[in-house]
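wait is this the right file?? whatever heres the structure
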């Protein structure tokens, strides 16, 4: 069991490093999802992806509402929460977008998201949602 856990940590670490430098920058990181499916088993893995889809759906609504009301602290907290959920689920492209958005909001006090930012978020969120649905429907191949 210790060897399995060590091997898992090494694989996740390689994938994580690759993602940061753009090697596996796709909407869904199938490599990391493959590792999770192997460790969890198919049913638990599907439950995990369903939870990620639900969080994406809920967060899209929260972020839109906070954006419309110009509630920037609440908006940033919703970005942070969704970023964590999607990073765990291997949704690299949207994770990176949210990470950069949160970083700007934290470091640039006068920065507020624009309609263009929300449009890009909505596009990435839709592609991510479709990618998760495809994995749930078709599996990892």
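ok assuming it is, sequence goes like this
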């Amino acid at each position: 069991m210790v060897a399995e856990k060590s091997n898992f940590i090494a694989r996740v670490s390689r994938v994580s490093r690759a993602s940061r430098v753009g090697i596996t920058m796709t909407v869904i990181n199938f490599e990391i999802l493959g590792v999770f499916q192997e460790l969890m088993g198919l049913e638990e893995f599907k439950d995990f992806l369903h939870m990620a889809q639900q969080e994406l759906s809920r967060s899209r609504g929260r972020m839109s509402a906070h954006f419309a009301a110009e509630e920037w602290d609440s908006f940033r907290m919703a970005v942070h929460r969704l970023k964590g959920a999607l990073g765990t689920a291997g949704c690299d492209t949207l994770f990176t977008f949210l990470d950069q958005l949160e970083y700007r909001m934290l470091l640039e006090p006068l920065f507020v998201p624009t309609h263009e930012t929300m449009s890009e978020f909505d596009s990435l969120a839709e592609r991510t949602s479709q990618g998760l649905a495809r994995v749930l429907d078709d599996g990892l191949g």
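DSSP finds six helices and no strands in the chain. so i think its the right one actually
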